[in-house]
Amino acid sequence: MKRSLVLSLSLALGVAALAPSLASAEKPRIAVLEFKSKADNTWWYNNGAAAAQDVFVTELVKSGKFRVIEREQLAALLREKNLSISGDVDPSTAVRAGRLLGVDYLLTGALTEYGSSTNEVSGGWRFQAKKKNFSAAMNARLIHTETGEIVWADEGSAEEGSFKLKVHGVGGGVDDNKMFDKVLKPIIQELAASLKAADI
Asked: Where residue 76 sits, what CATH number does that domain have?
């Protein structure tokens, strides 16, 4: 009886220990490609597409829904297989890349807006007012590498602003250039949450 109880407990512990690895093995494997930059206003922030890829990888890992290929590992695999893919991927390329990379899905998309605009009003030495707007927009698509079919797609946009005012040379305000976290990152988090909730 005692021996049987010990054996049952050992078996239960063994199954519990294996559960996480079994769950991990069932998760689909995904590669996040570098996003294509289609924005006209990226002159002062040219690394937006690469930064978007990094944040998407992090958010998908945090979601726990996928096994995500790390960006450097993906770049090495692409070089090894002599592949160059980003942005718009046609179905045949997706199927071929999926086979070569050993992934179930490719996540791709585009940065369609990313940059800033400034409006200034000046009353000579009496006052100066400056408003800076930063806007970002992007779309993302998930491609099944067995069929080349787009199984999920979504898009998002956001805008933030800062304002500075000086009267007779006195005053100020915030001229915030760290807008990636304030504008683009929340869009990616929203898209990642949408993908996590998708029935795929």
From this structure: 3.40.50.10610
